[in-house]
Task: inverse folding
């Protein structure tokens, strides 16, 4: 019989924050669907089944930071309670109570430092640290009960009590609700034993006075786990969905700016000697096949190598590329600092300029264009200007090339594109990206 997959919420409450590492498993497309739906329906989808054997190491490392909350709570609550004790009772019993407060602060500081260190996360070290912290949590009340006078016992127990509340929250977030609930149950006989040491009687009623606070911590920790888990899963679902949309748009641009442009160039080839036309078609096809192969097999390294060149060299290389296709681009570049523009924005503006120049080659009826680069309004502007046929912006809406390969590409990096044209007056395209 096949094992039924576990619910994400059940896994989260059972294992604590480390269960966030399973958040991307079995994640259905419906979770990231932006279509409005009832809140309970959305929650039901987010809390759907997960593969408990799956672990995303990045999410696992990020989950450890959730434990910072109870550690920071202890770092402030324990010294504060100790200060109240000293202001009320002076130096009576200050030795053991002070040592417990100092030990709690030391453990909390070490835990915070360990969480924030840059070294790789090792679960076995976390287990040892939790074991030491748990041992201190159980022994501190016994030490206070055995060493402080009976007259200050109740107030003195408030100091290890604050540490205990933080430990319950820590276990709930780090190991899950069963571990936290077990500590809460064990803390009652420990408190009765401490009372027996300090006052001579177990006092079950006094031990139960901490039950409401303990229950509140368990409820708050479980609520925090649920909110963090569902929020993380929803964010991941939206991120995956938007990533797919962005990748699809990028692939469409590649096809439009490469394959489609080459096919149109072949279709627009000059009529003439068949052998000459065949040679031209073969040249275009060979160039396109090489470009596609580079894109598929070595895109990352290609962009990395391009990143070593400033924007001016990228545009000069682009001008040489267009010259081979019959468009003479005059490049006018103002003096720019090579480090003023990020590589992502340089590539975006270069590819947008390529699409603008190809539009000139196809539609303007001219083989000359001026490309000017200058600083403008806190960014870099690249202006392409031709004196070709031009067109009416009102009667001819923007096609895929302008709306996606130019405008959308620049919008993704915070830039803008403006097209100005009129029949008989050529076309001017202004591309701008911020520094």
Result:
């Amino acid at each position: 019989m096949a094992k039924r997959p576990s619910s994400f919420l059940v896994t989260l409450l059972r294992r604590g924050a480390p269960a966030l590492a399973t958040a991307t498993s079995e994640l259905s497309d419906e979770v990231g669907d932006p279509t409005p739906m009832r809140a309970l329906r959305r929650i039901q989808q987010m809390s759907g089944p997960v593969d408990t054997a799956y672990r995303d190491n990045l999410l696992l490392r990020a989950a450890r930071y959730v434990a910072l909350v109870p550690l920071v709570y202890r770092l402030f609550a324990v010294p504060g309670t100790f200060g109240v004790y000293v202001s009320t009772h002076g130096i009576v019993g200050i030795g053991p109570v002070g040592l417990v407060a100092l030990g709690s602060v030391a453990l909390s500081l070490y835990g915070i430092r360990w969480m924030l260190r840059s070294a790789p996360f090792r679960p076995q070290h976390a287990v040892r640290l939790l074991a030491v912290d748990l041992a201190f949590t159980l022994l501190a009340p016994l030490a206070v009960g055995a060493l402080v006078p009976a007259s200050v016992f109740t107030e003195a127990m408030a100091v290890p009590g604050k540490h205990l509340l933080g430990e319950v929250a820590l276990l709930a977030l780090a190991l899950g609700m069963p571990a936290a609930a077990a500590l809460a149950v064990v803390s009652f006989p420990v408190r009765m034993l401490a009372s027996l040491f300090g006052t001579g009687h177990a006092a079950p009623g006094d031990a139960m006075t901490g039950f409401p606070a303990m229950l509140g911590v368990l409820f708050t920790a479980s609520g925090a786990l649920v909110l963090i888990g569902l929020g993380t899963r929803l964010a991941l679902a939206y991120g995956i969905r938007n990533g797919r949309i962005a990748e699809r748009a990028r692939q469409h641009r590649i096809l439009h700016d490469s394959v489609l442009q080459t096919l149109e160039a072949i279709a627009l080839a000059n009529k003439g000697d068949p052998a000459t036309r065949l040679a031209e078609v073969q040249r275009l096809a060979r160039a396109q096949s090489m470009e596609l192969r580079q894109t598929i097999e070595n895109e990352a390294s290609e962009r990395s190598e391009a990143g070593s060149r400033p924007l001016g060299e990228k545009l000069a290389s682009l001008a040489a590329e267009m010259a081979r296709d019959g468009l003479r681009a005059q490049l006018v570049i103002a003096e720019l600092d090579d480090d003023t523009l990020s590589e992502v924005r340089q590539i975006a503006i270069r590819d947008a300029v390529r699409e603008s120049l190809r539009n000139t080659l196809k539609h303007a009826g001219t083989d000359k264009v001026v490309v000017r680069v200058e600083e403008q309004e806190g960014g870099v502007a690249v202006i392409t200007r031709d004196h070709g046929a031009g067109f009416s912006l009102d009667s001819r809406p923007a096609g895929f090339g302008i709306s996606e390969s130019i405008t959308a590409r620049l919008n993704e990096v915070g830039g803008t594109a403006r097209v100005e044209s009129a029949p008989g007056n050529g076309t001017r395209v202004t591309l701008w990206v911020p520094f």
Observations:
- Residues 302-307 have pLDDT under 50 and may be disordered.
- Residues 421 and 427 are 4 Å apart (CA to CA).
